């Protein structure tokens, strides 16, 4: 059974940082593309970032490029999203998901709120 469990969300001031984690199980994590997708209040899903860790390729939405960093620890089957220079518009529920373009499995999400 595929399981994705996010953690690390919370309340942070503008300009602050957070690191999200996604613990994965039930599939071969080390050869899987993984993504972060977010949903802001009252808005649709927005793709944030993807990674093919086995070829060390990463991809970012323009809205987060230069501020967010996606990475993996294949020994721990864990996906990360380091978020720096956070803005109020980054407020959203953040989901990790398998795949880059099609996401067959999703975590439950973790809330990130950027506010002073």
Top keywords for this entry?
116 residues, 6-stranded mixed β-sheet, 4-stranded antiparallel β-sheet, 0% helix, 51% strand
Structure explained in plain terms:
With 116 residues, this protein is an all-beta fold. Helix content is 0%, strand content 51%. It has no helices and ten strands. The strands form two sheets. A six-stranded mixed sheet has the order 2-10-9-4-5-6, with no helix packed on it. The chain has a four-stranded antiparallel sheet with strand order 1-3-8-7, with no helix packed on it. A hairpin with a 4-residue loop joins strand 5 (45-52) and strand 6 (57-60). The model has no long low-confidence stretch (mean pLDDT 96).
Work out the strand percent: over 45%
Spatial gap, N to C terminus: 40 Å
User: Approximately how much helix is present in the residues?
Assistant: under 10%
Strand order of the largest sheet: 2-10-9-4-5-6
Low-confidence runs of at least 5 consecutive residues: none
Give the CA-based shape. Answer: globular
Largest sheet: 6 strands, mixed
Cα Rg: 13 Å
- H/I helix tally: 0
The H-and-E topology, N to C, reads as: EEEEEEEEEE
Give the overall pLDDT as a whole number. 96
**Structural class based on helices, strands and sheet pairing:** mainly beta
Number of DSSP strands? 10
């Amino acid at each position: 059974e595929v399981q994705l469990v996010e953690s690390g969300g919370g309340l942070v001031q503008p300009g602050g940082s957070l690191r999200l984690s996604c613990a994965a199980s039930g599939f071969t994590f080390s050869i899987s593309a993984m993504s972060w997708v977010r949903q802001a209040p009252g808005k649709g899903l927005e793709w944030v970032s993807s990674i093919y860790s086995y070829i060390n390729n990463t991809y970012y939405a323009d809205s987060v490029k230069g501020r967010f960093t996606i990475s993996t620890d294949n020994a721990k089957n864990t996906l990360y999203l380091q978020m720096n220079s956070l803005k109020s518009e980054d407020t959203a529920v953040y989901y990790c998901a398998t795949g880059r373009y099609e996401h067959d499995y999703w975590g439950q999400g973790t809330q990130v709120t950027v506010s002073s």
